[in-house]
UniProtKB/TrEMBL annotation:
Annotated spans, Disordered: 183-203
Protein's UniProt name: Cyanide hydratase
Keywords of the record: Hydrolase
Domain CN hydrolase stretches: 1-226
Entry keyword Hydrolase: yes
GO MF terms, alphabetically ordered: hydrolase activity
PROSITE patterns assigned: CN_HYDROLASE
Transmembrane residue ranges: none
Biased composition range(s): Basic and acidic residues: 189-201
Protein family membership: Belongs to the carbon-nitrogen hydrolase superfamily. Nitrilase family.
Length: 226
């Protein structure tokens, strides 16, 4: 939706809105049940619909299937302001105490905001989920486009910097995009991207508290990263 003009994006925005989840939806209950069945914590970023407003939301689900943290991005940035509403102080807290430590999560730009970073650090965050959207790699960059429009700085600069500055383990997930996904979610004018979907993939990272790279998948990898 962000690679095309507003007029071109309208059909995709309509479908996107239709796929946005209420926090008490059947789809959310299925994800919670999956967390319970597998005995795992799940940090999920998603588009939340609340009455008539979309929010960039995150939930932390416990191994019992309970939502123990539900937050919304405090301020959508750039073109996202056309689609998403603001968060608020009563549904913003990023860090939650769990039996594996204090787990926090931020969305996209929030991971590079010094004030939000300090806020999570002051709460004693130990494990951080730095959730990022789909961006292509640096081979697509056309000067003078800013390098923040591609994935490499987020996965290889911002995420380890967060780890070093806060002394946290940082799990930095990116979505994976297939050729079919490109064809389904872009207008015909952008279908040339379907020939090289790997430019969107392989950016997930895990970093130690000293910024050491602990895990980095390949471009063709699809699975769990440890």
């Amino acid at each position: 939706m962000w690679k095309i003009n507003y007029q071109e994006s309208l059909p995709f925005l309509k479908a996107y809105r239709g796929n946005s989840l209420p926090s008490d939806s059947d789809e959310m209950r299925r994800i919670r049940e999956a967390a319970r069945e597998n005995g795992i914590y799940v940090s999920l970023g998603y588009s939340e619909i609340d009455i008539a407003i979309l929010h960039l939301a995150q939930v932390l689900i416990s191994p019992t299937g309970d939502i123990i943290n539900h937050r919304r991005k405090i301020k959508p940035t750039h073109v996202k302001k056309l689609v998403f509403g603001d968060g608020a102080g009563d549904i913003f807290e990023p860090v939650t105490q769990t039996d594996i430590g204090k787990v926090g999560h931020y969305n996209c730009w929030e991971n590079m905001n010094p004030f939000l970073k300090a806020y999570a650090c002051c709460q004693g965050e130990q494990v951080h989920v730095a959730a990022w959207p789909i961006y292509p790699d640096k081979t697509t960059l056309n000067n003078p486009d800013p390098s923040t429009n591609v994935s490499d700085p987020n996965s290889d600069v911002v995420s380890p910097a967060y780890a070093i500055e806060t002394c946290t383990y940082v799990l930095a997930p990116f979505q994976r995009l297939s050729q079919e996904g490109v064809l389904k979610n872009t207008p015909a004018s952008k279908h040339e991207d379907a020939e090289t979907p790997d430019r969107y993939n392989g950016h997930t990272r895990i970093y130690g508290p000293d910024g050491t790279l602990l895990a980095k998948p390949g471009k063709d990898f699809e699975g769990l990263v440890f």
